[in-house]
Structure formats: C-alpha cells, structure tokens
C-alpha cells in the first residue's frame, strides 16, 4: 500500500514538472534590452536593409523589444513589404512608435504601423493616406464613394462589351484592391480597425493620434520613449505561432540605433537623380576613353560610375525601357559631334533622353520621382557640353600641325658638320642628315623643303637676323 502511494506521488510530481517545462514562455516576463531603430524620411531599399540587419542583431543580443521610431512620408512598396515580412516573422515583439511630436506615418508608414505587434503614436502626429500611386496610370487619384458610384452608373458598355473606363483605371483599381486587402489583413491579424484601413487606401483618409486611438487603429499614445516603456510594461504580445510574451520594459535599458554609413551610402545610391547623373558621366567618360585611348583615368572613372548607376537602378523600381532611352539619347548627342546630321541626331538625342527620364521610374513615391526641370536641365547641359567639345575639336583640326614629321617642312636649321660622306644640321637640338643641290658649309642657314626617310632636303638661306634660333620658321 505504501509503495503504491509513493508511486502515485512520483507520478504526480513527474506530471507537474512536465507541465512546468511546457508552460508557454509568455508567462515569464521578458526583460532585457530595448532596441530603438530610428527611421526618418522616405522608406527605400536602404531602410529595409537597415531594419533587417538590426532586427537580426537584436535577436542575437536577446533583446526583449524592438521599437521602430518612425517619421516617414511613405516610400516604395517593395521595401515596405520586406519590412513587414521581417516584422511578421520576428521572434521579438516589434513596437512602432510614430514620433516625436509632429511626425507622421503616411502611405507605407501606415502599413508598417498596422503590421507591428504594438502601434503607438506621439501627440500631434498623424497616419494614413495609404493609396498606392504609379506613374503612367490615369485614375491614380483616390476616389470617394460618390465618385465611384457615379463612375459605376455611367460606365456604359462599348460595342465589345468592355467597360468605358480605361485600361489605366482598371489597372489602378486592381492595385487599390490589392493594397486594401493587404492592409485589411494586417488589421485583422492585429485586431485593429479594418474600416479605416479600407478608407486609408481607397480615399487616402488620415487620422490624428487621438482619432486613431479612439478608432481602434493604435494601441496607445506616448509623448516619448520613456513614457512608451512605462505604458508597455506588463503588456502581453502575441507573436508568430500563437506564442505570447509579457513585456517588462519599465526599467529596461534603451539602446538607440541610428542609420550607419552603410545605410547612408545605400540611401544616396537609391536617389534616382544621382543614378541618372552617374550613368551620364559613365557614358561620356567611356566615350572619351575610346576616342582618345591611352590616358586611362576617364575609362576607369567611367566604368565605375556606370556600374554604380546600374547597381542603383537595380535597387530602384525602374523601367528598363526608360534606361535604354536615356542611354540612346546620350549616344545620339555624342554622335552629333562627329556625323554631319545637321542637328537631327542631337535633337533626337535630347528628345530620347527626356522621354526616357520620364519613363525611368515606375513609381511616384515621394523622393523617387525625377522632375521634368531636372531632366531638361541635364539634357541641355549635356548638349551644350558636347557642342563645346565638338567646336573645340573642329578648331583644333583646322590649326596647322605643330608636331611630327609634317611640322618640319619649312623650318630653318643650321649646318653643323660637312664631311665627304655628307652634311648634318641641327634642328630643334637634334642632328639630322641633310642633302642640298647647293654646296653647304658649317654655320650655313638652310630651309627644310622635304623629308626622305631620315634625310632632310634643304636649300640655303640668306642670313636673316630675325630667324637666328634653330628650328624656327622664317
């Protein structure tokens, strides 16, 4: 009997120990370091790279929370989705805080805020205006309900049964529907307002911090990071796989990380205007190297600029037809310098360059457009530079030859030595064998009339006090 009681007691202890070992990690408060990542400005490839690297480092350091302090007008869809994928798969809770006061989370920032485990804003901040836009698509402006109803009522069918709305409108509607579904799915995942998510995409609606809190879009309002840590202390966060974690942030160490040199370089390269300038420099420098070989520096610099420009284009959502048109325009402007086209190639090159620049970017995200004045200025500057180089080359071609064998005809020399084998004269400090139909004596002044191999044909000169220096034409 006693043995049975001990066996039951041992079994009960074993089951209790098993339950304690398999207890969810959320029951234990998560303390440790809080890593704050600051993102300011346009969200692009550099931003997504910075976030991915620092999130991985925070995981290695076993941080208890990653805070994304954000102030952005929006950015690229691809970079935004890369950041959201990292947040959704993160084993560490990610809190997005729109701050400090006066900051915003517009467009792509709204999606990131919705995807975060915790959404917070500082007073006097706003979010929203999440309508996707793209170059070349009519109807890219957001529609209100009345406009959509009117378009639906007036959408007469043509003879083929297709809607009277243009293809561009249909494409933009598909993009809006995809964006609305994406933001709505993030709202459902985090238990936030799906109604505002829909309006933010379709109507470009925006909310202030107080309105967002009242509408269930965000979780809390905090004026600064320390207040945010205080309000997050003890909050339970649901992570990937259904695991929950309780935050312990009241006394946590805050480590703030700002963008490093790598992100600054990537952000600089992600500027389409700089990429376009580097491409033009690369094309012109390589052209100069091919037409004047031997110098080396233009070729090396041009190759580096062109490769860096292509790398920048690879980072950006570019239209490669636009890149080809820009390159064709530069080549045509260069060809105008050497071919007698009477301006046809040059004008065509400028047109191709400007049109290619307009087609270059596939997005109107803030910070990634190429203004028309910039394109026109760059095209005119290129045309003027090429015209100046061509004019200089033409003037140089018309000048008399000042070096080589052709230069020597007509120059004056002084006979230095006369022997039975022949005579020699000094020409610009060099001793040349000379031949003349008239007898020569040392010290005679002669004029070079022709060259026969390494022998100069000369004729005697009457002494002229003005032309005493050797090698100077009279």
From TrEMBL:
Residues 34-135 form the NfeD1b N-terminal domain. Residues 141-162 have a biased composition (Basic and acidic residues). Its main location: membrane. Residues 138-165 are annotated as: Disordered. Residues 1-27 form the signal peptide. Pfam families: NfeD, NfeD1b_N, NfeD_membrane. Coiled coil: none annotated. Residues 406-460 form the NfeD-like C-terminal domain. One of its GO terms (molecular function) is peptidase activity. The keyword Transport does not apply. Residues 274-388 form the NfeD integral membrane domain. It is a multi-pass membrane protein. The chain crosses the membrane at residues 265-287, 294-312, 342-360, 372-394. One of its GO terms (biological process) is proteolysis. CDD domains: Clp_protease_NfeD_1. Keywords: Hydrolase, Membrane, Protease, Signal, Transmembrane, Transmembrane helix. One of its GO terms (cellular component) is membrane. It is found in: Membrane. This is Membrane-bound serine protease (ClpP class).
């Amino acid at each position: 009997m006693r043995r049975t009681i001990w066996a039951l007691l041992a079994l009960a202890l074993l089951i209790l120990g098993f339950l304690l070992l398999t207890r969810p990690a959320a029951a234990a408060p998560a303390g440790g370091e809080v890593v704050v990542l600051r993102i300011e400005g346009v969200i692009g490839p550099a931003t997504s790279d910075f976030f991915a690297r620092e999130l991985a480092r925070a995981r290695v350091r076993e941080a208890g929370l990653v805070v994304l302090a954000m102030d952005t007008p929006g950015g690229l869809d691809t970079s935004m989705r890369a950041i959201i994928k990292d947040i959704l798969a993160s084993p560490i809770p990610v809190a997005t805080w729109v701050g400090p006061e006066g900051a915003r989370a517009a467009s792509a920032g709204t999606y990131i805020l919705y995807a975060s485990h915790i959404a917070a804003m500082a007073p006097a901040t706003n979010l929203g205006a999440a309508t996707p836009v793209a170059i070349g698509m009519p109807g890219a402006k957001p529609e209100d309900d009345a406009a959509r109803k009117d378009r639906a009522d007036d959408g007469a069918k043509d003879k083929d049964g297709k809607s009277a709305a243009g293809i561009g409108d249909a494409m933009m509607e598909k993009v809006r529907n995809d964006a609305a579904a994406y933001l709505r799915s993030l709202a459902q995942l985090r238990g936030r307002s799906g109604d505002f998510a829909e309006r933010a995409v379709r109507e470009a609606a925006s909310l202030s911090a107080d309105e967002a809190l009242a509408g269930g879009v965000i979780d809390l309002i905090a004026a600064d990071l320390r207040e945010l840590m205080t309000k997050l202390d003890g909050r339970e966060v649901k992570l990937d796989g259904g695991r929950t974690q309780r935050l312990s942030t009241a006394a946590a160490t805050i480590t703030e990380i700002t963008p490093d040199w790598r992100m600054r370089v990537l952000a600089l390269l992600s500027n389409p205007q700089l990429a376009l300038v580097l491409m033009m420099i690369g094309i012109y420098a390589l052209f100069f190297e091919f037409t004047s070989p031997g110098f080396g520096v233009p070729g090396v610099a041009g190759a580096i600029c062109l490769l860096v420009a292509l790398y920048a284009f690879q980072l950006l959502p570019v239209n490669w037809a636009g890149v080809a048109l820009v390159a064709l325009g530069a080549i045509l402007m260069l060809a105008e310098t050497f071919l007698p086209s009477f301006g046809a190639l040059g004008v065509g090159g400028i047109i191709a360059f400007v049109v290619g620049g307009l087609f270059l970017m596939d997005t109107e995200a803030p910070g990634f457009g190429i203004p028309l004045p910039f394109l026109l200025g760059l095209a005119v500057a290129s045309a003027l530079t090429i015209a100046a180089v061509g004019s200089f080359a033409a003037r140089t071609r018309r000048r008399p030859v000042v070096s080589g064998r052709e230069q020597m005809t007509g120059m004056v020399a002084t006979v230095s030595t006369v022997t039975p084998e022949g005579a020699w004269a000094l020409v610009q400090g060099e001793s040349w064998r000379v031949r003349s139909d008239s007898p020569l004596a040392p010290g005679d002044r002669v004029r070079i009339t022709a060259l026969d191999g390494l022998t100069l044909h000369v004729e005697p000169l009457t002494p002229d006090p003005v032309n005493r220096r050797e090698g100077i034409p009279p």
